[in-house]
Structures are given as structure tokens and as C-alpha cells.
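Last lecture ended with a question: if I hand you only a sequence, what can you say about the shape of the protein? Today we answer it with a concrete record. The protein is Methanobactin biosynthesis cassette protein MbnP. Below, first the input exactly as provided, then the predicted structure, then a couple of comments.
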Amino acid sequence: MTSFLNISTARIALSTLALAALAACGGGDEAPATTQAVAIEFAAVNGLANTPVSCASVLTGMGTGSVNAKLTDLRFYVSDVKLITASGQEVAVTLASNDWQLTQGGHGLTLIDLENDADTCAGDAATNIRVAGTAPVGTYTGVKFTLGVPSALNHLDATAATTVAPLTNNDMFWSWTGGYKHAKIEVNPENATTAGIYTGGMTNTAVTPNTTANTFNFHLGDTNCTAGVPLSSSTCLSENTSTITMTAFNAGTQKVAVDIGALFAQSNLQVESGGAPGCMSGQTDPQCQAMWSVIGKSFSLDAVTGAITVSSLSADDASNNAFRSGTTVFRPIAK
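The predicted structure:
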């Protein structure tokens, strides 16, 4: 005969199994999730064929001379990421806490690092390909972000004990009052006389006698800056951050391409014709003059007074501002 104890034990066991089954089916008193994970990935490519770019690969058809080149650096800051609903509502992404991301002063900031210190690259082995965080549960059809460091964070001292990652990266800090480099993208063109050699590939026409250089630099940063005391109070007349909007973007199936070929499409990579090497955001630098139309900014210099006129800094004109409208340099591609 079955004892009362055995019957009770059996009933308790069955009750436990039933509760477990109910929980597995989503029953019980658990509240539904209110947030969902978000991961927006970036990948370096060359051209509309989306040819992958790495530190070890040869970039073909680069610039106005259609030359070969090799990557030497590819890092940039992304801030204030928002997802966009079908109705146009913008929803901020809450960043996860890690060494690549910072939430401070009402802004979210991520350092994207697509170089790994291999071959010709001169950064370090660590990489970060994504903005990671959460957003309210919902259906999103687009993404919007700012390329660069917000003004409120841009003039922190990278070496100060109170500054935290990713703003402690000295490679991304300007050596003058401008703050941080919003983007640091560099390539070495192939030597014009020695195929397969990626040193001495640039002829310098700005000095006599001509000399050669290795690297065409694209350093995007703020300009026309005035130093403040403390440093964090510095101001810049030209805040060269760029807002990039992709109205059709699915983070689950797509990633953001960074097209190096499109970035340098208007540049002669084998000639240094004045100013800083390559383009370091100097408004009148000859190399920058060729790149402003790609970046979506316009500067003009008064030959008499030397005054600089800045225009198109905030206008999103999809017809001639492809860098910022997310159709050329930054654009969605399949994962």
C-alpha cells in the first residue's frame, strides 16, 4: 500500500514540474521585457563592390590616380546613436559599459577601431567593430549617429586621471587646442616608380627641392579653436562633426560600410601640395579642398583679408552631401 508520505511527495513533484512548465511557456507573474539588445556593426570596404579592407590588403583604384594603397590607420568616434521607427521617431540607444564606450554629460560615445596593428597599420591589436547597447522594445527601420566627439566631451585632457576610456586614447587626441580627432583614417599609396613598395609614395610639390612622404592622412577634427582655462572650456568656431542618417537600416541584417575608396575619391594620393600631410581639417589645405565636397563641408578664404567663411556645416543636402546622408562613405550593406 502506498503511504501518505509517498503520495504527498508525488503531488509536490508534479506541482513543481507544472510550475516549471508554466514558467518555460512564459506564464507566471514575470513582466515582459521592456528593452532589447542593439548592436550596430561597422566594416571597412573599398568601392561599391564592398571589397573588404584590412591592414594586410591592397586597396586598388584609389584616388584620382587610381593607384594602389595600403591602410595604415582606421579609427573614428561615433556618438549619440539613435534608432528610427517607420514613423520617423528617434529613440536613443543606451550604451553598454565597456572600455570602448562612454556615457557622460548627456552623451553616448563609442570608439570604432577597424585596424589591428598588422602589416602597415600602426595602431594596436585591439579592435572594436560595434556600438553595443539597448533600446526600448520596438521595430526600427533606420539609424542616426554623429561622427565625432560632442563638444561637451571634446576638450577633456586625454592624460588626466579623471578622463576615462575611450577618451584616454592618445592616438586620437589632437596636439593642439582642437580636442580629439573625430576620425583618423590613413593610407600609404604605392610608390610611383617602384611597384609593390608603400613608402615614399607621395611627391611633395610644396617645397623645393621636392621630397617624398609615406602617408596620406585624413584627420577630421574641430578647427578655429580658442584655448580655455581649464582645457575643457575651449571653444571652436568650426565643429567638424557630421550627423549621418540612414533611413533604411536593419541592425539585425545589415552593418554600416565605411567606404575608403569613396572617402579618397577626389584626392591625388601621390602628391602632397601643401599644408599638413594629407588633410588634417585645415580649411585652406589643398588636400582638404578636394575632400570637403565628399565630407559635406565648405570653406572659402578671402584673398585680401584672410578671413575664412564657413558654410554647409549643418545642412543635410542629399544631392551633394553623401558623406553625411549615409549614401556613399557611410552606407548600409548586408552582414
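Comments.
1. The CA atoms of residues 48 and 191 lie 25 Å apart.
2. The chain has one domain: 34-334.
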